[in-house]
Design a protein that fits this description.
414 residues; alpha+beta; Cytochrome p450; monooxygenase activity
Amino acid sequence: MGKYLNMIDAAPAADKWPMVRELMMRERQPFFAEMQSERPVLQLPDDMVFITRYVDCTLVLNRWNDFGVDLYKPKQGDYFMAQDDTADHWRDKSIMKSILDFEDLPAMRKFVGERAASLLREGQGAIDAPQSLTRAVPVSLVQEFFGFQGSNPKKLIDWSYWNQQDAFHNQPFDRDVTPDPDHIVAERKRANIHLAFYIGRVLLKRVLQVKFGGDRQDSVSRLVRLSFSKGVKFPLKKVLFNAGGLLIGAVETTSHAVNNALAELLSRPDVLERAKAAAASPDPKDFDGFVFEALRFNPAFPYFFRTCHTPTTLGGGTPHAVEVKPGTTVIACTHAAMFDEAGYTDPPAFDSRRGLYQTFTLGYGHHECLGRAVASVMVPEIVRQVLLLPDIRQEGPIVYQGGVPEHYALRWAA
């Protein structure tokens, strides 16, 4: 048995999952390789299972009736992303995808590039990326394209932050790294009260504009017109709820992904030079693969969690097969899955040709990120603007707080 499994097996029960999480972050590739070959289904205390193979991760994330998002419901209530195969999920996600028009992507990318470049010019050679760039740019996009014009950026960031903290970093299995879970819940509830009042005021304005012939094309206005049409079951309460979801999903996740991609590229001198050359190409899409591949190595979400509903065999076809029972929390380590030879050719190699769809960066299956199309242009464009700076460098590693990038000092020749 390998050294990692020896360490895990010898650890006290309460230390096993924290140890696995630390190994996943600090010694990722050798740890993943050992797990996939020797124990692809690792049973942990407190009815937890940790899986690393590509085939098992895709099985769990594809079979939503067998593995559900139960743990999101206490955090997100009736929001469709906290549901699996329900009428609300079916309808609401379809509506939200339809109002995020693909046709808007070139304009969004242009806007993001200009906004990022402006903020970087203001930095005059130095910037703390999370504080002054990677949250500020998606907030600006939310204001411009989603219908939040005239809002306070700091409040939008605050509302997104606490919702993301509670949903993704304040689960029962996070208790060893979350010093005050109740505080996070209280902050999320406070944020949502303020967010609901704010969106209520936005809706009042949009309702009047729509009724009196306004032709605004932001996301909230589209939702109001759809609600008024009575063509589908989508009352104004749904508009309010889902408009809030647009904000919550756009800011903190974008910031996390941008910082992680930058840190990975800036730590690879040979790749960095090729990425810089691609960033200067007339077609920015030549560059995007560098960002998506960087996120394969350094994802914002190294795992997704699901609750087992149906007895299911994982690790099938190996001597380590395990039947997972209902109620078990399954940690699908998609970070490991992206280095499984069963799913990837030469996984240790940095290959910018792989593209976004060969990763789990924006989720997978039924609960793939709603904003996939927007993120696919916004994240690489922010990174691209940074790499266009002369002599760009990092002044130390990302400082994470609460599981997300809070400080990351960048310098360049002004």
